[in-house]
Structures
1.
Amino acid sequence: MFPAATRIGRRRALTGSAVALVVLAVLVWWLQPFSRTPPSGEVVFGTGTKAGVYQLYGEKLRGELAVDMPDLSVELKTSLGSQQNVAMVALDKTQFAIAAADAVENYRNDGKPGARDLRGVARLYDDYLQLIVPVGSKVQHVDDLKGLRVGIGPDHSGVQLIANGVLRAAGLDPAEDVVPHRDGIDTGPGKLERGEIDAFFWSGGLPTRGLVDLSERFDFRFVPIESHLVTALHRQDDMVGHHYRPATMPESAYPRAMNGEPVETLAVSNLLITRKDVDPELIEWFTRTVIRSRDDIGKEVHAAQVVDVRTAVDTHPLPLHEGALNYYRSVKP
């Protein structure tokens, strides 16, 4: 009896040792990226207007990157929004940028310079289309904008791309049926407050601080973007409309303006983009910081709370950069 028990004990000990060695090997493999020397140098990161979520997210991410890569200098470059950001990355004016998926698709569809070199790093959070009017406005639906002064976003912005699409889906010609103003989140709130425009579109994460600030001094409301408009966008000839999906802005997004009522709208994914020739090791570290810092950034950029490794890999319509793919493979269960 005792020799048999001894043999069983030895087998258990050997099995336990083998398991321990496997665990140790996995732990070493897991920690290996962190033992490498962090990348250094300088990169430029395209954000957006100063009152928008892109800029705030960029500011917070730069702080987190400084923790993981203290010798990497990150310059934030403001822009008019997604369409300009895509072009800046494609033309090698920035190494990184945030851009909505529809703007990326639009750039690729047009076959513009550098389109084939674009790569995805991570899917971040969703932009929600927001159509803002004074609280006493008679506008109840998008087609009620006919003949009015409407902020459709600056040229080369993602806002203008989506606003024009929605106007067309509602049966309006953006150039003929409204009086278009090239206002975004930086100038639109002030012009609405002063009565210089009747409405303006904004596409951004929830909440956007420019609208939070406006709600504290001016009474406005949101016009719903109804689901039939999303269906109409999907029927458009290009592939851009397929990136839009029905969504609901929760009443908690802007408590002062929403009066406890959610608002029907549409959403589009935001992507962190780069080029295929950017150093894979830098991209791998960059990707790791994006995922690691979700909770810390999310404390101030609420939209970033949804960043998750399971959804970050979906950077459609762009293929993942080699460095990002290396990171996601390293953390795959």
2.
Amino acid sequence: MGSGRLARGRAGSWEPGHALLAVPLALIVLVTVVDILAPPEVHLGPFLAAAPAITASFAGPRTTGFVGAVAVLAQPVVAIVRTSLTDLNHSFQLTALILISVFVTFFAHLREQHEKQLTQLRSVARAAQEVVLRPLPPRIGPLRVGCVYLAAEAEAQIGGDLFAAARTARGTRIIIGDVRGKGLEAVGDAALVLGAFRATAHQETDLPTLVTYLEGTVTSDLDDPAAAGSGRADHSEGFITAAVLDVPDDAPALHLVNCGHPPPLLLRDGQVTSLDVSHPAPPLGLTQFVDSSFAAETFAFEPGDTVLLYTDGVIEARDASGAFYPLSDRVTAWSGAGPADLLRRLRDDLLAHTPEGCLGDDAAMVAITRMPRG
């Protein structure tokens, strides 16, 4: 995943080729020749300023400065051939061309510096997210697992979608969540929750106690005085939706605490069932505003069943007409596929659903299949 992103980054930082550079140079030659051959009352010298301006749109300051220098040298050639180098009209044209070339070269320098800073920010942000969001192993106890993460390519913005798994003595615990907001702040909040989950999920505590601990971690971070300078207007702006599952090894069931997250989908015999809890909890970080306790609800999860966890970036993806992605309908068609194959098909179909394969928000999916006892 990291190498693919690095390759894209390198491809985006190309230098202008000879074909593109030929355009402003050809323009200089054309304007120079036509200006020399034009009647005395026609002056085409001002058009030479277009050459460095065009170059600045695709090249760096060095190339822009070079083209500007060629344009400046072309102006005296025209002046000498037509009249003289000291002609007042040509002198003003030459002065204006020098000033314009200097300005566009300077702006090309500023744009290059901005692009470098943006590239560095993207690199740091993506590296931070890759460290936080570790891929899940394909096999965890009696479960086959698949995961996929799709970043919304919007400048340097990255999101706070998260998932993780932990083994206990009796089963497997899995979390999927979505931090409100984007950027490094969202990655920091995701790292906070994932760290708390990884540190506690393997312990022999019940699921509501685990979620209570996660809630306490998020709330204590929001109450930290240092968070006042993080840019949030108030505590209610920071929260995390999450679904936390406990899948025992020796029972055909799963236990679920849903904290404001989209409900998981159960795939069984070509049918898709939404695992809606009867008493959903508020998102992590908002229990101080809502009087609610965490309660786990149990659903059947038999050998051969698959559970699909996802973030709202999947179901809120829109096509060109504004229609949302029909996740349940798509999953039904591929309900017999294994976790990795299911997610591969969903990923390709989701990108095909959106215009030019661009998502409006980050999207994460985790598929879990219980293996038959053997």
3.
Amino acid sequence: MGAVGAAAVLGLLTGCASDGDGDGASPPSPSTSATVSASASASATASGSRGAPGAVRVAGTLTEDLESPWGVAALPDGDLLVASRDERTITRVDAETGRKTPVGEVPGVVPGGEGGLLGLAVRGGQVYAYFTADADNRIVRMPYGGGAGDRLGAPEVVLSGIPKGTVHNGGRIAFGPDGMLYAGTGERGETGLAQNLESLGGKILRMTPEGKPAPGNPFPGSVVYSYGHRNVQGLAWDGDGRLWAAEFGQNTWDELNLVQAGKNYGWPKVEGVAGVSDFVDPVAQWRTDEASPSGIAYAEGAIWMAGLRGERLWRIPLSGAERSGDPEAFLVEEYGRLRTVLAAGDGRLWLTTSETDTRGTPGPGDDKILRLEVK
């Protein structure tokens, strides 16, 4: 059913049904004020691959036996680079054969809880990585390919000082159509950071490839692009260049947001659709046990959103800046926790499972990269 615009006032959120990776405990909000939250979910009935417009089917498994895969980035030739959160390593996966080739360990990564080697992005012979270090989360870039060969070169720090924690480290990075680097961060369980414009936690950041504040950013001299986020792990642009982000809720609502420069997305004051003029409402929302979203991608007129705790892939059809229909779920509990989805062109998607992230139940071959086809 569709989202309901009416808001309900809830008491203080004292626990967490869905943390940054979907299941663990989160510190309670320090606020003593009521938290505003929407009264109904935007989720729809779950579907399989039944041939409906926009349905998806699994065409095969590209590779398997990956350890705690998190970030995935496509190389110019179509092969994939995959980050292992807990092993600190990056592996190249042949997009045709699935053959895996280690390309190096990223120095300085300190795995723990939801932290470790997280998002990846590729640009101009450089591999960008977002990771948890000893004192912070940071973004580095490393030469790869060309003169550097098939091994990662020495890292150069692009941006440091992103708050780290056992939970809510964010971690997704991607280059936008404008050539700028975007990063989704979390508030490490310290909810007030999301509203503090002096902190890089609980934000979407926009920077040059060198890590400087991007031209046109809404706050002069700052890489902050939007704020009031709890834990952003999904970033994607639609065909018209609009930025979308998936975000973990606490007890009630996970969100898909249309991101606009300088806007406040409400955390920790609101969660889900609230109808409060100071904050931007999500375009879609889900109960936390139906989603706990991580990666998103845009393909065939829709956002595709991977669910961790929800163990399903959501399709959210779009018409411009709005939803054009109810979200629809696919692959429900068929492959376990789902972490990253990546558009591969021509109606194809890559999808990674996340059963070896300490919160899943690994089976034979876990974790995998699946080939999907949109019909």
